[in-house]
Write a structure and sequence with these properties.
mainly alpha
């Protein structure tokens, strides 16, 4: 009987929400760490490619064109890593998962109304 009353008590529900929030915060830190590692490795890879371009025997116009292209690709790929992590974090958010199914499209709008 006592356990049944504890199950319906307000304190246990608040404690459960706090555990969800702590787990989400831990997951969020893991996602952030993963984003930093992936972006760092991308930057390192493109740094090596740009060094190879500058050391090559190509004309300066060609080197400049290739360097601009590589920089554009780096920015695109780096942003893609960030956006994928942002979508994943939003999908795992306990606050966003409380909404009914017809309002779940909130994941893609990134509005401040949900938080």
């Amino acid at each position: 009987m006592k356990k049944l009353l504890e199950f319906f008590s307000v304190d246990s529900r608040i404690e459960h929400k706090n555990n969800k929030l702590k787990n989400y915060n831990y997951t969020l830190i893991t996602i952030i760490d993963d984003v930093i590692k992936k972006r760092k490795s991308l930057h390192h890879k493109y740094d090596k490619l740009i060094e190879k371009v500058w050391v090559s025997a190509r004309p300066l116009n060609c080197k400049t064109f290739l360097a601009k292209y590589l920089l554009t690709r780096l920015l695109r790929e780096s942003d893609r890593v960030f956006f994928k992590a942002q979508i994943l974090a939003t999908k795992l958010c306990p606050k966003c998962n409380e909404y009914p199914n017809n309002l779940k499209n909130v994941h893609y709008e990134f509005s401040d109304k949900t938080h």
